[in-house]
């Protein structure tokens, strides 16, 4: 008995989507457990229950009230916001020079920039810490923000690849009309590179918002300089108890802003990645 091609395609369609649904459920399971723990009352949080029998929405308000939530949130916003601005301002001109200006040694410089991405963070941590100690920046947000205004290798590479997809004729026409390189960058490149800029901004926002190592190291013992991720890691110690439900509620509060930003800009983000990958 032979199977009709239409039936075969239908079975393959169902099988493929069943696999995708199973993978999505597996990926969402940790999030569902976090939400369940965040909504548990205190007595259930210390038990073996995976889901709450009684939902306690007040856990989110308790997290905000038990420690300086708004101060740590402001530090995270300051760190992520200024870092993203710094990366965009510093990386775009470098990417434009590497993609659209002809000068000797351009490819060698690009190789050196890419080589810096191969250095693990642990290799440069001690030397950078010594520099920031001498500058008196330890215990502040300066070591987290100031370096971003000197460029980021991955962002430069991503923007360079995108800028290479822009037709050279547009740039040549602007030069013929007397536009300066800065004018070309601001009036032609920036509007056309919006998807790539959004992609770079989102990559940096997610990275800095979730960053734990650098804020923990450079903030030192100064609690005023803690970001929200560092403060939540110290939440149990600060409150002298195993408040797992409140920790999970704080985790959801930490993830909510960046999730909202990603959902709002996801279409532009995907366009930026797709168009960048199209140029090889």
Task: Report what the structure shows.
The protein is mainly alpha-helical. It has two domains: 5-38; 67-277, MetI-like fold (Orthogonal Bundle). Helix content is 75%, strand content 0%. The protein is built from 15 helices and no strands. It has helices at 5-38, 42-45, 58-66, 69-100, 106-116, 121-135, 142-145, 153-163, 168-176, 181-192, 194-209, 213-219, 228-233, 235-239, 244-277. α4 (69-100) runs antiparallel to α11 (194-209) and α8 (153-163) runs parallel beside α15. It is globular and about 75 Å long. The two termini are 48 Å apart.
Number of helices: 15
* Secondary-structure content class: mainly alpha
Q: Kindly report the name of the CATH homologous superfamily of the largest domain.
A: MetI-like
What order do the SSEs take from the amino end to the carboxyl end, as H and E?
A: HHHHHHHHHHHHHHH
Tags for this model:
280 residues; mainly alpha; MetI-like fold; 2 domains; 15 helices; globular
Give a nutshell description of this structure.
This protein is mainly alpha-helical. Helix content is 75%, strand content 0%.
What's the SSE blueprint?
Blueprint (H helix, E strand, L loop, with lengths): L4 H34 L3 H4 L12 H9 L2 H32 L5 H11 L4 H15 L6 H4 L7 H11 L4 H9 L4 H12 L1 H16 L3 H7 L8 H6 L1 H5 L4 H34 L3
Helix pairs in contact: 1-15, 3-15, 4-8, 4-11, 5-8, 8-15, 11-15
């Amino acid at each position: 008995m032979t199977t009709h091609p239409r039936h075969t395609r239908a079975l393959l369609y169902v099988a493929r989507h069943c696999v995708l649904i199973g993978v999505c459920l597996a990926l969402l399971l940790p999030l569902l457990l976090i939400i369940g723990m965040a909504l548990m009352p205190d007595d259930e949080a210390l038990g073996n229950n995976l889901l709450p029998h009684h939902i306690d929405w007040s856990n989110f308000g308790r997290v905000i009230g038990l420690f300086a939530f708004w101060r740590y949130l402001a530090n995270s916003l300051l760190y992520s916001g200024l870092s993203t601005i710094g990366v965009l301002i510093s990386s775009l001109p470098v990417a434009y020079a590497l993609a659209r200006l002809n000068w000797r040694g351009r490819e060698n410089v690009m190789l050196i920039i890419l080589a810096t991405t191969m250095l693990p963070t642990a290799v440069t941590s001690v030397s950078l810490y010594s520099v920031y100690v001498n500058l008196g920046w330890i215990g502040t947000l300066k070591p987290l923000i100031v370096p971003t205004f000197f460029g980021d290798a991955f962002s430069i590479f991503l923007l360079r690849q995108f800028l290479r997809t822009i037709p050279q004729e547009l740039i040549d026409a602007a030069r013929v009309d007397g536009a300066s390189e800065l004018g070309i960058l601001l009036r032609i490149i920036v509007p056309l590179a919006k998807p790539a800029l959004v992609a770079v901004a989102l990559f940096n926002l997610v990275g800095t918002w979730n960053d734990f190592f650098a804020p923990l190291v450079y903030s030192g013992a100064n609690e005023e300089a803690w970001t929200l991720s560092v403060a939540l890691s110290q939440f149990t110690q600060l409150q002298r108890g195993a408040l797992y439900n409140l920790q999970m509620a704080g985790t959801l509060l930490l993830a909510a802003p960046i999730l909202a930003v990603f959902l709002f800009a996801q279409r532009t983000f995907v366009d930026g990645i797709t168009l960048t990958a199209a140029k090889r």
